[in-house]
Amino acid sequence: MQREAIDLHTADGLKLVGELATPIGKPPVATLITLHPLPTHGGFMDSHILRKASNRLPELAEIAVLRFNTRGTESPHGKSQGSFGEGVTEQHDVEAAIEFAKSRNLPNLWLVGWSFGTELALKYGHDKDIVGAILLSPPLHRANDDDLDQWAGNHRNLIALVPEHDDYLRPEQARERFSRIPHIDIVGVDGAKHLWVGENATKRVLDEIVLRVNPSRYPLPDSWTPASA
Known about the structure:
Layout: E1 2-9, E2 15-22, E3 30-35, H1 48-61, E4 63-68, E5 74-75, E6 78-79, H2 90-103, E7 109-114, H3 116-124, E8 132-136, H4 145-149, E9 157-163, H5 171-177, E10 185-189, H6 199-213
Parallel strand pairs: 3-4, 3-7, 7-8, 8-9, 9-10
Antiparallel strand pairs: 1-2, 2-4, 5-6
């Protein structure tokens, strides 16, 4: 894939560090704007599922992957300006990422949030220019019923991947909490945990994303040989 270091600029004057990964030699058919887990507990743009998405999906599924560190978050890619906003001022971060993707004419924008990132997607994605949102391990701590109600009757797709052994919200609880959004697709993942550790968990998450975003490339192959090999 082609990797490009990018800066996002928020409406309240911060610069956020990020990266855009795109296919080589062909345009993407869709775009993932990824929202990482809680930065105060080790989450950042290089959290493993998001990093592996950027490594695999541009080539294997023709999907662009935009990752960035929310305000005050540091990773091997660098540190974004500002400080953690408890999921409130991060609204500006989500909006900056979407506006950047639109400025590049990237197609078919999807938010992909993981844990804390799902809260940002639920709170701030319901009225944006996106196809939908995919939620990985939603804890539903910061997103309340009013936030969920914004998605009821909404034309945007909403998918939640909920691990069987999640630390915060398990499939049956998720079905109850999300019942106010009739069109949500809740996928309970047997054997999985909140952090999606292991190749089987990674492959399942990426396959489920591809199934929704570019189903013609589902399922992802188990191996890959470079074209030049």
